[in-house]
Amino acid sequence: MLSFADFIAPFDPAEFKRDYFGRKPCHIRRGSAAFANPLPWSRFNAVLGLAPYWNEDTLKVFYRSRSALRENYCDVTDLGAGAKAPADPRKVKALLGLGASLVANHLHKVCPEVAGITQMLEREFAARSGANVYCSFSEVQAFSTHFDLHDVFVIQTEGEKLWHVYTARADNPVNPVPPGDEAEKWLIATRGDVLLEITMKPGDVLYLPRGQYHDAVTGAGASLHATCFVEPATGLSLFKLMTNTATGDSGFRAYLPDARDEAALRTHLARLSHYLQTLMNSRTFLDDVINLQRGLATSPADYRLPAQQRPRFYAPATRIDVIRRLDGCIALAAGREFQLGTTYPAVAWLVQQRTFSFDDLMARFPFVVERDMQAILSQLIAVGAVVETDMR
Fold first, then answer.
1. What sign for the dihedral angle of Cα 376, 378, 384, 389?
2. Same domain, 140 and 248
3. Nearest-angstrom CA–CA distance, 115 and 129
4. Number of compact structural domains in the chain
5. First CA to last CA across the chain, in angstroms?
6. Residues 97-112: tens digit of each pLDDT
7. Is 308 found in the same domain as 195?
8. Which domain holds residue 274?
9. 215 and 287 share one domain
10. Of the candidates 296, 251, 257, the residue with the CA atom closest to the CA atom of residue 276
11. Contact predicate 256/265, CB 8 Å
12. Over 70: is that where the pLDDT of 144 sits?
């Protein structure tokens, strides 16, 4: 399994996290000799051959910073209502012959070699990750100056590309700049001076923090690079967690006082504010956030067929009450109290089942640490609250 240390070698991972991640750009020169290329031309061509996956959303064609109309590179005949137009390889190749650039979105979904990188980044940074791949030709600039709404790791896999990284950096952006000539002029006017000019060669990795202005131009030949986005949870994601919890509070479900009675409204808002402050400082909300971050990562398919592993089945044998408290969720079973920690969503689910398998339980709650779940399950089995059963 690929590690982050291997990915950015010979750069030191601790130094990267301390001095660069979320702070400033970093160019890592690896050299092709130390580079296990995840996407050579042959592999990219093979993935593009998975015709059913490529449509107007997953495949884009750009010419002089403008996206091609779907009828110019897709088959739009006999489309049903709401159907995505499939990419037409012949139309795509015709546009590429004119010097257009190709963007293959979400390539990690159909290319295990690239998925291995994005899954590693998810684990390393408690973040969502994915990869778009950019194919461009001699001295082409597919996109003008812009910035991204997430951190990115650029991996040059074939050819060379000249990158300009500018001094300007947007402040934690969450909304894209609207497309159009005026926005393009504004980005160029606000990008600042050139901070770094980098020629990316096969094996090189370029890290750009969210909001960093940049653009790139292909060298003398064709270029292929993968851009892996890294998107950790932000403070904005906490609102959904708070909403889920606050729904259980009578005060939040109550109507707000009429604003014409300002004193009553202020008193009510003060109570709600106190509740939220107490909630956000609680052990249970911390567990919610931990589960949120863990849930951003995905796992490889890893089927290993024809090997089989028969699942073990269990059934609740006595009443088990899962209680959410600010100092941590607990389960009450057989007259005893069990601290659930971050396993509480999984335990809350299993107590409602007639039978369940451990494998299915972990599949439904992949953010729960398996050893923690095994420990809680063992405790419930030890007191007779859960028993192993035979599904044959």
1. positive
2. no
3. 9
4. 3
5. 36
6. 998 999 999 999 999 9
7. no
8. 235-280
9. no
10. 251
11. yes
12. yes
